From TrEMBL:
InterPro entries: AAA+_ATPase, ABC_transporter-like_ATP-bd, ABC_Transporter_VariousFunc, P-loop_NTPase. It comes from Neorhodopirellula lusitana. Residues 1-22, 323-337 have a biased composition (Polar residues). This is ABC-2 type transport system ATP-binding protein. The lineage of its organism: Bacteria, Pseudomonadati, Planctomycetota, Planctomycetia, Pirellulales. GO terms for molecular function: ATP binding. Residues 1-28, 317-337 are annotated as: Disordered.
Length: 337
């Protein structure tokens, strides 16, 4: 239980909107846009205390991170590294022990800013006896959307998350993947500018996971900002523009995914239509220039690509079985189409 009520006094919930408006007026058009920063944590720390106010866990230590408008930002770290604590601080559900969180230039304790935020928690607690349509309509009411707005928005979101065929079924009949999609639709009901996603692909099969990732990329393409926490590193690599890696509450790495993953001092060349003779000549050329040929081979696809191709082919041609060229099928005895 978080009994850290004293920590509330450490936060400074002053309304920043006036000064933010002034800085907008003062800034020349070409200046680096302060408005482009959607979330900013400054020296952010959180200590959970027990009932008697004694320090229990130092969950977050002096975190300095900026999330920019229109990016997908990944928050990574092993269990207990402070990811959920960070999200709760951003939402204003917890107060910092020291430091600040600014969201849209306002202190995170300003609850009105949450009207521009969509949140998909790790576990969505949805009413099992409502249908997807009723669920979204219910959340639309909480945001004071009019009847006409709710009808349009619910229809749009159900299409977006691909639940048209199941929209009249009660959520108790939904699979994990379908429930996750309703959760995402619910997080988007207020057409938020910032979307916080806690483990968005958990429990999804590779197809559901690919669809969820495409949805997240689609949100970024609409100009939304996405902050996501995930243990699925391949998913993070697929969708995130930048990541922060936390360990035991401390920021260990921060940067663009492409930069962080780049292997220095190795050159990659992709070519098609090379003869064996050409490959031999390339190997000789590399040696002549003092390089060391590590491999010259066909690249491998990802397991996700393989899996999705097989499923899509199977849907297009039910009953037929794919024959993989060069695969070792010696243990296979099944019929091939
Ligand atoms: N309400 C609480 N009271 C006391 N300690 C807490 C509380 N919530 C979290 N903690 C502790 O704070 C640390 C960070 O927890 P947090 O939930 O932020 O980690 P996480 O990175 O989200 O973990 P996971 O990947 O398992 O979801 C952990 O040591 C956790 O036990």
């Amino acid at each position: 239980m978080d009994t850290d009520t004293s920590a509330a006094a450490d936060s400074n919930p002053t309304n920043q909107s006036d000064s933010a408006d002034q800085s907008k007026l003062a800034a020349p058009a070409s200046a680096p846009a302060v408005d482009d920063v959607v979330i900013e944590t400054r020296n952010l720390s959180k200590i959970y205390r027990d009932f008697w106010g004694r320090k229990k866990v130092h969950a977050l230590k002096s975190l300095d991170v900026e999330v920019k408008k229109g990016e997908i930002f990944g928050l990574l770290g092993p269990n207990g590294s402070g990811k959920s604590t960070t999200i709760k601080l951003i939402l204003g559900l917890l107060f910092p022990t020291s430091g600040r969180v600014l969201v849209f230039d306002q202190d995170a304790s300003e609850t009105r800013k949450n009207e521009r935020i969509g949140y998909l928690p790790e576990e969505s607690y949805l009413y099992k006896f409502l249908t997807a349509e009723e669920t979204l309509d219910f959340y639309g009411r909480l945001f004071d959307l009019s009847g006409a707005e709710r009808r349009d928005r619910v229809k749009q979101l159900i299409e977006l998350v691909g639940l048209q065929g199941a929209k009249h079924r009660q959520l108790k009949e939904y699979s994990k993947g379908m429930t996750r999609r309703v959760g995402l639709a619910q997080a988007l009901i207020n057409d938020p500018d910032l979307i916080l996603l806690d483990e968005p692909t958990t429990g999804l099969d590779p197809i559901g996971s690919r669809e969820m990732k495409d949805l997240i990329i689609g949100l970024r393409d609409q100009g939304k900002t996405v902050l996501l926490c995930s243990h699925q590193l391949a998913d993070v690599q697929d969708v995130c523009d930048r990541v922060a890696i936390l360990h035991q509450g401390e920021l260990k790495e921060l940067g663009r995914v492409t930069d962080l993953l780049k292997v220095q001092d190795v050159t990659e060349v992709h070519a098609t239509g090379l003869s064996d003779q050409a490959k031999t000549e390339i190997a000789e050329l590399i040696a002549r220039h003092g390089g060391h040929l590590q491999s010259i081979d066909n690249p491998t696809a990802t397991m996700e690509d393989l899996f999705l191709n097989i499923v899509r082919e199977s849907e297009a041609r039910p009953g037929a079985r794919r024959v993989t060229q060069n695969a070792d099928t010696s243990a296979n005895t099944g019929d091939q189409a």
